[in-house]
Amino acid sequence: MSTQPEKKSRFSRKPKDPDNPGRLSQFKTLYQASVKQNPKIPLWMALTFVVTLLVFMVLLHFVFSSWIYTAILGAIFGLLATVIVFGRLAERAAYGSMEGKAGGTGAALQSLKRGWTYDQEPVAAEAGRARKMSELSNAAMVFRAIGKPGVVLIGEGPSGASRKLLESERKRVSRVAGPEVPVHVLRVGAGEDTVKLAVLAKTMKGLDKKLTDAEVQAVTKRLRALGATKPPIPKGVDPRNAPRMDRKAMRGR
């Protein structure tokens, strides 16, 4: 007796790929993580929707003279405004969750767009007496980005150790890149003379542009040939395992 394979219906659902969650699943995960960081997000979303709805209903009523039609259009614009506000709040929450965490700078650099090249892992690090992951917050690290403003070195960690590490890396980069290439030094944190992670990319983009695209590529090649100082991080501790922001999820993709 021959057995024939069962025919699959063209209307049968495809099995879900665990490595590729849908948009709703991504949005749900992002929403839960954001609300955990900032519990006021639902309130701001509701307020945005109601205010936008009322404003558009009043404005559009003078055009269409129909409360039902204006309510539908107002709801559409309200949902759009709510999504935009949620995206901004979720981004702030993501930066807030990375504040003070080792390797947070590498995650923040992901918001840089075309025209920049950067290393997602530190080019120099000093862990001090840290011997386990919980003590890595006391590690000083330096991250490097290259763009039209020149070379930007970003330090994180304890003030004294990060300043010392930044100065050492600045001299090292200047020696290889050449005196004509500007080298900017920034430190992330919440104290004086520091930049918050949330505005790090904006601060870097605001620097005066001094290099052409060709010069940026040339400097990048020189520094890649230079390599990185081997970070003295304790065994089993990897700064590359720092939290990463899901930019696509924030944009609803």
Note the topology.
Blueprint: H1 23-37, H2 41-64, H3 67-98, H4 104-108, E1 117-118, E2 124-126, E3 140-147, E4 150-156, H5 159-177, E5 183-187, H6 200-205, H7 213-226, H8 247-250
Parallel strand pairs: 4-5
Antiparallel strand pairs: 1-3, 2-3, 3-4
Description:
By secondary structure, this protein is an alpha+beta fold. The chain has 2 domains: 76 residues, no CATH class; 139 residues, no CATH class. 47% of the residues lie in helices and 10% in strands. The chain has 8 helices and 5 strands; from the N terminus they run H-H-H-H-E-E-E-E-H-E-H-H-H. Strands 1, 2, 3, 4 and 5 form a 5-stranded mixed β-sheet that branches. Helix 2 packs antiparallel against helix 3. The longest helix is centred in the N-terminal third of the chain and has 32 residues. The protein is elongated. The C terminus is likely disordered. This is DUF4191 domain-containing protein. InterPro entries: DUF4191 (IPR025445).
